[in-house]
Amino acid sequence: MKMKGRSIFTYDVYAPTTVTTMLRPRRQEGQSIIMEGFNIEPSVPFTEYTDLYGNPCQRTILPVGKVTITTEVQAQVNPTKPIPDPAPAYVLVGDLPDDVMHYILPSRYCQSDLHEINMLAMEIAGNLTPGYAQVEAIRTWIHQNIKYQYGVTNASTTALDVARNRIGVCRDFTHLAIALCRNLCIPTRMTVGYLDRLEVMDLHAWFEVYIGGEWFTFDAVQEKTDGYRIEIAHGRDAADVAMVTQYGNATLQSLHVEAELLEPEPAQ
């Protein structure tokens, strides 16, 4: 399926400001990039590098004045990978690949080692078969018990805050899911990108878990995990996948996001 994504960041820059961005799509299995564009207006030179998680990153200095950063992508993508039957098995910690181990550790926004997180994880999924059943129970519980609302959380909101206040947006839903899954020793990472079916279009966050020897997608915002996605980046939590990180005096004035399929979905 061909899918298109587009985002436009508009800034007021009051002093030359160094930024790093994570706005170009990953090239990986299941996601073939047909076309992409990355443009800064007014034009400034930028460099590119790949971070520790394999995410393509950009780095530049924004000039004083109004600055827009526009990124576009067209990709051939598969629908969200369904969970096979029988469900993939839980992988014992001792059998995890080395490059997966850090996804069971606590991180800045996902305090999976806290007693309060442990108590909630056990309440939701403690009696279930380790692995997929626990993850889906956590995803469903968050969808049903956390209220989706803009403007009530911010860049410092953690999984523990969400567990207590039970309100937030996709980033917050994802952080809580990650913390709960990691508490049960299930490797879990945060993924950001475009999703074709959002009520309010925005850049989206979801989570992926390592079960049965591979990564599977789960989305606590949705009633059921489905749809087409273009992945931009993944990491331990929002600290690793920030779309724009600035080191200076600039204010984001607006963000416009588009995501759509370029051909009709197959009949069910």
UniProtKB/TrEMBL annotation:
SMART domains (UniProt xref): TGc
Source taxon at top rank: Bacteria
Species whose genome carries this gene: Dyadobacter sediminis
Pfam (any one): Transglut_core
Cross-referenced InterPro entries: Papain-like_cys_pep_sf, Transglutaminase-like
Domain Transglutaminase-like span(s) in chain numbering: 162-222
Name by which UniProt lists this protein: Transglutaminase family protein
